[in-house]
Amino acid sequence: MDDLKAGGIAVIDFGSQYTQLIARRIRELGVYAEVYAHHSDASQMNQHRPAGYVLSGGPSSVYEADAPQLPPFLLDAERPILGICYGMQLLTAAQGGAVAAASEREYGPAVIRHEPISPLFDGLDAELQVWMSHGDRIEALPAGYRALAASDNSPLAAIGDLERDRYGLQFHPEVRHSPRGQAILGNFLFRICRCQPVWSAATFIEDAVERIRAQVGDERVLLALSGGVDSAVAGALIHRAIGERLTCIFVDHGLLRQGEAEQVLQVFRHEQNMKLIAVNAVEEFLTALAGVTEPEAKRKIIGRLFVERFAEEARKLRGIRFLAQGTIYPDVIESAAAGASAKTIKSHHNVGGLPADLRFELVEPLRDCFKDEVRKIGEALGLPESIIWRQPFPGPGLAIRCLGELSWGRLEKLRAADAIFTSELAAAGLLRRGTAQSFAVLLPVKSVGVMGDKRSYEEALVLRSVTSEDFMTADWARLPYDLLAKVSARIVNEVPGINRVAYDITSKPPGTIEWE
Ligand code: XMP
Question: Comparing 2-192 with 407-503, is the CATH topology the same?
């Protein structure tokens, strides 16, 4: 792996909500980028011999007493540096320039005009739209620096020491609101750092296969397939590396969406030819969940039973040394950042730890990958679109979307309505892109309606569809009225037992995405 990662970029995190996005954007350009907390050791930050450093933004002010500092080794590293927002101010302050609070905070779109003197803006129009978000500004440049771009409110919107390849941007090139931001990052990577675009799904797979073989040797690996993207791609990747020596366990708890359990068997057993043990635990889960209405109680029961059934199967397969997991890079960053600089942390524990008699070494081939990279790898491994482009689905499944008491009948009703909603969204091109998560929620509430000439008294269903970048915040999707009308009509006509459909227009916060 080291060769593929070498010559990339170390992104140093000062607490910006955009730090991961910076790394993602760099990787989209074919260059490996890894995020490091600003207090990491030089040896850690340099472990993959980066060709350059990007300093993220952050919520602090450089003149505050406890503001995060520039890692001292950086100024002696003799490699290019790009400071973004706080990163730029830090670079300025550390080299003798002055930073102070601006009279007004600048937030939102701005137009910058740049001087055609630096490689950073090579090939770009003289005027560019960018996204600003800062409260501090540079008052005096350090020695060797000059202004490279200005906006109406920021005379120093971009600065650079062209001799030493150090640059600063007051705006955020990584966000979509800076339409040419990717070209600016590209110039930094290819014209200034002289990176090679070697990071791709194909090179990643080749490399990961070798690493998995090296780690696993002649041993066997076990994997819990959930039907979700991450475990599916991890499975396909490990299967490519070690074939028959991978055994997958799929616990069917009866809480998946319509057709999903069948699809898992079809794709992994028949199309991918993977060794797959399917455990039908539907009865057991429904029995344990009977009469339970409290959301956290549902989660606990499901988590416990899942581990029990998985452990039972795992015990039967003697002598397996490795357990594979679909951990991805944001999971790694978030757990590493707990207690450090990132502010937004949420993790869901679907399955608790395995019992003490089951000890495995972990294989986590996607630890370095962002979600969009996982999808590209899945595509390159030949997994079908329906698995790769699946929207996130909670571990407790439909149990937390079927409010009130669970029964097979109510779950089937929910599945049928949910399938209508998702198929209409897919037909309108709003499932894969356009909405981040869309699903139906069945309420334990009856209302009166009229169908044909008869009075009906049936349950109500809510449609939920949100847009979101990171699922920490979300907005309700402005779905077209005609689409909502069609979905509502189809559900009431085609799904017995539902006579009313509502659309949830709550954002998160204050709502959550799921109803339970
Ligand atoms: P909320 O409802 O908290 O959800 O806004 C944020 C994201 O997390 C998913 N979610 C879960 N995922 N186990 C999971 O694996 C859970 O218990 C769980 N609860 C919520 C939710 O679908 C959304 O993507």
Answer: no
Ligand 1, CB within 6 Å, residue ranges: 299, 348, 350, 392, 394-396, 437, 471, 508, 512-514
Strand partners, 501: 461
Active site residue 172: yes
Active-site residue identified among 34, 38, 134, 174: 174
Q: Provide the token pair at 11.
A: 């992104």
What letter would DSSP give residue 292?
A: -
Number of Cα atoms under 13 Å in the Cβ half of residue 438: 29
The CATH architecture that domain 407-503 belongs to is: 2-Layer Sandwich (3.30)
The closest of 460, 443, 437 to 402, measured between CA atoms, is 443
* Known catalytic membership, residue 85: yes
**Structure-token pair, residue 372:** 């969009």
Burial 321-358 (b: 16+ CB within 10 A, else e): ebbbbbbbbebbbeeebeeebbeeeeeeeebeeeeeee
For residue 3, the model assigns a pLDDT of: 79
| CATH architecture assigned to 2-192 | 3-Layer(aba) Sandwich (3.40)
> C-alpha angle 364/9/332, rounded to 5°?
30
Q: What is the pLDDT of residue 334?
A: 72
CA count, 13 A, side-chain hemisphere, 2: 4
Model confidence band, residue 65 (pLDDT cutoffs 50, 70, 90): very high
What pLDDT, on a 0 to 100 scale, did the predictor assign at position 348? 37
Q: What is the pLDDT of residues 318-374, one digit of tens each?
A: 999 999 999 998 888 777 665 444 333 223 333 347 888 888 999 999 999 999 999
Least confidently predicted of 54-58, 102-106, 194-198 = 102-106
Instruction: Give residue 420 CA to ligand 1 midpoint distance, Å.
Output: 22
Domain regions of the chain by residue span: 2-192, 201-388, 407-503
**Highest CATH level, class, for 201-388:** alpha beta
**Active-site residue 39, yes or no?**
no
Ligand 1 geometric centre to CA of 395 (Å)? 8
